[in-house]
Amino acid sequence: MTPTAEHVADRLLLADVVSEAPVPLWVIGPEGSVVVANRAAVSFLGYRNELDLVGGPSHELLHRNRPDGTSYPPEDCPIICARGMEHQGQEWFMTRAGDPRPVHWSTRRLHDTGATVLSFTPTASDAVRHRAERRLRDAVPTSAPLRSRAALRDGLYAIIHERFADPLFSVADLATEAHVSVRSLQALFADVGRSPASEVRRIRLDFAHSMLERGHAVQTACQRSGFLDPGSFGRAFRRRFGYPPSQVRPLEASG
């Protein structure tokens, strides 16, 4: 049946609504390729336009690897493996530049076409935050009459190790998640001659160094260790280790 002018107008309107929706929307075809990526999704993932994405493999474009650089097999992907009408969860998606970003995602299967509609929103990684807060509570039992400063510091390190890859993670965020003031946070680290900011930076740099030793590129190590730009990463790395990141030699694989 030939579509009427009214039907064509409705389709164009629907396409415009999807394209301009503020929430990232992504449609995965039955074979796993990207059918639709609206502007919000394109922008969030750092691509130029939908032409960079449509027709490509959805799993690889969303999260070709995990935040630590290890491979992410499609058979382990909850989005690819989702069955039924609706699913949701927490994941890390990778931008075009390889920057990991925590998201909350939801899918709905379109049975008439076999396609899957995926929507996602950036989060503060609720799952990560809850794990870190639980470890902090475990380190400092509420039944204790006085909190052990050393145990509290251990809980703070647990949060840092969970969150350092987020470039927006700050000392203020650390204080909020630990339910202490920034001044108390600084005093806790001053006990051992350190500062919270320097410890976040040290953990980021140590992670970056280990990535370089495993053969990752400098840019990849920079992005996945929580640095916003290569310049600040390079300067901090040289101050920490005495040489630039480009001089790190990969460790030889053990036989």
UniProtKB/TrEMBL annotation:
<dbReference type="InterPro" id="IPR018060">
    <property type="entry name" value="HTH_AraC"/>
</dbReference>
<dbReference type="InterPro" id="IPR000014">
    <property type="entry name" value="PAS"/>
</dbReference>
<dbReference type="InterPro" id="IPR018062">
    <property type="entry name" value="HTH_AraC-typ_CS"/>
</dbReference>
<dbReference type="InterPro" id="IPR009057">
    <property type="entry name" value="Homeodomain-like_sf"/>
</dbReference>
<dbReference type="InterPro" id="IPR035965">
    <property type="entry name" value="PAS-like_dom_sf"/>
</dbReference>
<keyword id="KW-0804">Transcription</keyword>
<dbReference type="InterPro" id="IPR050204">
    <property type="entry name" value="AraC_XylS_family_regulators"/>
</dbReference>
<keyword id="KW-0238">DNA-binding</keyword>
<protein>
    <submittedName>
        <fullName>Helix-turn-helix domain-containing protein</fullName>
    </submittedName>
</protein>
<keyword id="KW-0805">Transcription regulation</keyword>
<feature type="domain" description="HTH araC/xylS-type">
    <location>
        <begin position="154"/>
        <end position="251"/>
    </location>
</feature>
<dbReference type="Pfam" id="PF12833">
    <property type="entry name" value="HTH_18"/>
</dbReference>
